[in-house]
DNA sequence: GTCGATGTTATCAA
DNA sequence: TTTGATAACATCGA
């Protein structure tokens, strides 16, 4: 599922492949995922050139040549695919941007939780979904990161998933980060030491960068990049999705339990509750 | 054919 | 303040 490293991979590929190209036609097969509405969306994008691709947390921001920005959230199964307009669209393709050079950018989303919002570039960060976000997990420096997380008293796993505190982490990387930091997912955050916070910051940076280098994680073939390739980080996962299998830290079995109504994976012998 | 699980987020309830 | 339940949706596997 797309979390920060996957969205960053999408951003990088789009920056290479579609910046500079002009949208000749927008075909909206359905309108429930586009905002503010179909008419404004289609009219606002037709004829425009993409000039930049940015990312904030799990949000993608595609800047156009007229001070408009297309903000995209992939949620669970949203995908942007770059290809040839002559190729048949894959199933669950709900939106197509046809370029004037015969290429196409297509939006597909099996579960249809994702959304695309066309707004002014200056207003993009004021969209509720973005305005509510804390600092980006990758862009934040150590002082900012620690300051945002300290002072609350929540279970560590749900805390790392809270986008309003720090944005970008999802279920996979939250589990991986806590495992590497040897912190139990139910550990109350007010019992975490200053030293542990600093360690958590360093580990978060390492894991996010390593995942980006491998172009993200593709479990169950869910996440696919705009070029059709899957990520490779799933091979590096220590605990996520590995219930019952030996953890790399000690060889003991990975445990899975529901915490904050989300599945959490951890090593019970190396991630002790204090 | 039914049921539960999947993971992200908003919203409402406790 | 924190936690949990629910809903949005489609697919897959038991």
Q: How would you characterize this protein structure?
A:
The protein has 274 residues and is α+β, with helices and mostly antiparallel strands. The protein is built from seven helices and eleven strands. It has helices at 4-17, 38-45, 128-131, 142-149, 156-161, 171-180, 194-213; strands at residues 23-28, 34-35, 50-56, 59-64, 68-73, 78-84, 93-99, 103-109, 115-120, 255-259, 262-266. Strands 2-9-5-4-3 form a five-stranded mixed β-sheet, covered by helices on one side. A four-stranded antiparallel β-sheet has the order 1-7-8-6, covered by helices on one side. A hairpin with a 3-residue loop joins strand 4 and strand 5 (68-73). The chain is elongated, with a radius of gyration of 20 Å. The two termini are 31 Å apart. The structure holds a DNA duplex (14 and 14 nucleotides).
